[in-house]
Recover the amino acids of this structure.
């Protein structure tokens, strides 16, 4: 009991010393942002690196289209639609205001063209046309948007339309955290980057020019997207994604007073993330993995294999502080199944487990039976 108490005291004494600079650093960054709400997340892990009022419900404006595009990507993935499909604009879609490509009722465009219009130029009419093509009408599509948000754990989000127009929408809101979650999900579809990284393009054989509303695509190193949004209610917003040295970040900014501040806040967070974090490739020391003895098996030992570890997110400079610990059984009783867990490799830093890789049996080993024993005896007798 005394030992446990002393350990707890040591932990409690160490906690204040370990919080520190990091918390102070992120707080300083958060205070320097002019936006009402913001968050910085690493895409592969979903780990939040810093945040400011990240759960405050705010109008997301055209950042809403991230969910619209996510649903389109998922329909493409399962094959229910294709990029070459022709979509005919309805009266409802063609009458959308705000950012648009001026679709005319009855005009046809491909899914590819409409995605490009929505992702690059934030076209509300193109978004509505896609929504109607997938679900029949925008109301049904919005229901799917909200269902998908629920599945993703976006607990502080409600959509009323597929575009983000909020002049008449009274219950259309999201948070920086929820937007980072859906942005991360969208970025799993690599094809979306073919659209979100376009700076300039055109439709209708060059008659309609498209210019990306996200200026970072042109001016920020490694920018991969993703979506801007602007309305009088929402202010200036952005979900900005960028990738450098194998690490991808998403920076969400909501409620900026102007476009310049929106981009500056996003750049500030991205710069801080890339300067302080990196993706680390874990390397297993295979000399630590020994054969395991099989008791009462048709073979005496079994060769273990280790499942490859996934890269992890770490603070820069922490690479040399990561240790490797192997926990593997000395022996195992037959029968042994192929893939049966025999132990694990743990990667740790300061006593915290950063990653765990299972050690499993390379093949199956049957238990010795009467016939196996007879074969051994017969073989021994025959040699004599």
């Amino acid at each position: 009991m005394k030992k446990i108490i002393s350990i707890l005291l040591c932990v409690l004494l160490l906690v204040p010393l370990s919080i520190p600079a990091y918390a102070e650093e992120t707080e300083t960054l958060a205070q320097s942002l002019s936006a009402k709400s913001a968050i910085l997340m690493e895409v592969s892990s979903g780990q939040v690196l810093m945040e400011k009022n990240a759960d405050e419900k705010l109008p997301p404006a055209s950042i809403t289209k991230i969910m619209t595009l996510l649903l389109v990507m998922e329909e493409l993935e399962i094959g229910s639609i294709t990029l070459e499909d022709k979509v005919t604009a309805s009266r409802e879609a063609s009458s959308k205001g705000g950012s648009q490509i001026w679709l005319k009722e009855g005009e046809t465009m491909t899914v590819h063209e409409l995605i490009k219009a929505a992702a690059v130029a934030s076209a509300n009419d193109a978004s509505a046309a896609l929504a109607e093509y997938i679900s029949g009408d925008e109301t049904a599509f919005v229901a799917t948007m909200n269902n998908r948000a629920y599945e993703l754990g976006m607990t502080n989000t409600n959509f009323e339309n597929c575009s983000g127009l909020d002049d008449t929408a009274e219950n259309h809101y999201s948070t920086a955290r929820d937007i980072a979650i859906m942005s991360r999900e969208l970025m799993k579809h690599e094809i979306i980057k073919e659209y979100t990284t376009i700076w300039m393009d055109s439709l209708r054989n060059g008659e309609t020019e498209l210019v990306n509303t996200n200026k970072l695509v042109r001016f920020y190193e490694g920018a991969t997207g993703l979506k801007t949004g602007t309305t009088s209610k929402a202010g200036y917003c952005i979900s900005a994604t960028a990738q450098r040295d194998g690490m991808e970040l998403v920076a969400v900014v909501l409620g900026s007073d102007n476009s310049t501040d929106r981009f500056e806040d996003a750049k500030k967070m991205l710069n801080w993330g890339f300067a302080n974090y990196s993706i680390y490739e874990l390397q297993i020391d295979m000399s630590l993995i020994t054969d395991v003895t099989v008791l009462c098996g048709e073979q005496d030992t079994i060769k273990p294999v280790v499942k490859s570890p996934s890269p992890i997110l770490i603070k820069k400079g922490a690479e040399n502080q990561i240790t490797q610990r192997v926990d593997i059984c000395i022996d195992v009783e037959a029968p042994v199944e192929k893939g049966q867990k025999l132990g694990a490799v743990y990667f740790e830093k300061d006593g915290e487990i950063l990653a765990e890789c299972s050690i499993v049996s390379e093949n199956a080993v049957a238990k010795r039976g009467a016939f196996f024993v007879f074969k051994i005896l017969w073989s021994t007798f025959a040699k004599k």
User: Anything to note?
Assistant: The chain is about 35% helix and 25% strand. Residues 259-276 form the longest helix (18 residues).
